[in-house]
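User: I'm curious whether this sequence folds into something compact or stays loose and floppy. Could you predict its structure so I can see for myself?
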Amino acid sequence: MMLRTLTILCCLSLSISSYSQTDEEVIKKIYSTSLSNGQSYDWLNYLSNQIGGRLSGSLNAEKAVAWGKEQLDSLGLTKVWLQPVMVTKWVRGAKEYAYIQSVPGKTTTVNICALGGSVATPALGIKANVVEVHDFEELATLGEQNIAGKIVFFNRPMQADLINTFEAYSGANNQRTQGAAQAVKYGAVAVIVRSMNLRLDDYPHTGNMHYGDLPENQRIPAAAISTNDAELLSTMLELDKNIQFYFKQSCKQLKDVQSYNVIGEITGSEFPNDYMVVGGHLDSWDLGDGSHDDGAGIVQSMEVLRLFKKLGIKPKHSLRVVLFMNAENGLRGGIKYAGEAKQKGENHVFALESDSGGFTPRGFSFECNDAVLNKVQDWKSLFKPYLIHYFEKGHSGSDIGPLKTDTNVLVGLEPDSQRYFDYHHTKIDTFDAIDKRELELGAATMASLVYLFDKYGVK
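Assistant: Here's the prediction. I'll summarize afterward.
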């Protein structure tokens, strides 16, 4: 009887001790555990090196789904399941080839890659004169008389003096996504787009493009050219407007196929019908292995739930991790998840996305009302020891975007972005570009914010 009483008292003491921990103490344990006993780096090692690039609709994407479910099953969550979603299937085909021809017989090979969603060139490739433009206004000014039968070369660099590199990316990105659809209006036979990159290198950057409602038989091929070769092409055009550009690519758009979002949940102890989500996208482009975009976000999100389990933090709200599929060329996973949640009447009060790389975390970008943002400012001192300082309104994430309501809170993890676009959508977005400590700091930062919102709510 005495032993049983002591056991009860001991358990009660532990319980009281757990609940009486300060926020500073809990957050310190989250960071300590992520840095000394984390799982995110090992997960990413397997995802990147054993599975590799995970283009939507590919065999590797299927393998990633199976791997994601297996890992979440191993965490002892309340439940884990696959959510079916029809996704885009585009294949690159054989490696692209391109050269600049200054005079017949004299050529300079350059580095290109097909843009995601592009059609192929003719089987023997395409060769034509080139006209360089920097924006759609210049394109319209030149008009059909100067563009018909030529390859349009979009050469607007990302704006180097913007500290926020995502702002610089947004300012240049429409030439990639819409360039072909615009150029074909004036009779262009193809487009070449300067890679979205702030440095000069030899790595072309792929990424999604679209033709709008343009019929298939009117679509023209689109490819990205490395920044070094964009500079070369521009210089050669200054010297001789009659140079020609040749390229060949064999990409193809296939029928949609079924894939899955992978979802795991810890059911809330007090508000089981109020959901908090952490996530990233499981698909990636095919040139590298997608370690930064978005393998890092996937494993960091998984680590949030693992840390809660490891530290015995029982969430009040139901906490879900969602590994979204098809973010790169369709956002079908995010749209499907939000649509099904709405259909079921699920109340999503909070969502946090990591899709900006695995670099050192700096803070968060919030889509919320001013009252919530003021509450977050009060938490700054809790993050100060970890050099987290950025708490501003802004974009949260593309996959969680469809969950937005007038009352919930959407958040994006904000890592240091200065090097992100060196790797983004290239063959060098590989595991060796990931720093273990930076990745683990990001996971801990996410878990800490989730802990605070779960404890104090979103109002």
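Summary: Residues 160 and 210 are 26 Å apart (CA to CA). DSSP finds 14 helices and 16 strands in the chain.
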